[in-house]
Amino acid sequence: MARYFDVHPENPQRRSLSQVVDLLREDGLIAYPTDSCFALGCRIGNQEGMERIRAIRKLDHRHHFTLVCQDFAQLGQFVIVDNTVFRAIKATTPGPYTFILPATKEVPRRLMHAKKKTVGVRIPDHVVTQALLAELGEPILSSTLLLPEFAEPLTQGWEIKEELDHQVDAVLDSGDCGVEPTTVVDFSSGEAEVVRHGAGDATRFE
Q: Model pTM greater than 0.90?
């Protein structure tokens, strides 16, 4: 059964976050809130966790996972960002955007797009997510919590616990999340290409 952590949306309890981070470090899989929707997440090195996400969402091996980062310093360890792209991303982060960029050698090959050698990254504007990332000290490998049998992402923590009680190790809840996933912008060619319209305003990239 999944452990359920109900935390304050503006002052998340450190003890609860520490317990969730312990589960992540023990190669657990969690459901957690972001500034767009709930997400499924595990540590970058947790290959079994990645496969569990694929199984829950019924994803194939072409799916682009996202590295959810605390800040630009962390993001810069995992993707290659030139000055022009940096300025474009800086103007919209933190926020509900995912950026596809060339991966550095820090990224395991299994997380990259097979041909392009790219990976998705984002910096969320969410107090609880930021506190969780600060406690963990590394990005969380993530995917939107959109279940194949539902038209929209689940927005209630208790509902997620009911649905995924035996498939995840913890549900971190701080209140409702939205149902719109992030806006995805692909910079792998050097030019911005909006590949998914979502919660973030895409007009500046079009």
A: yes
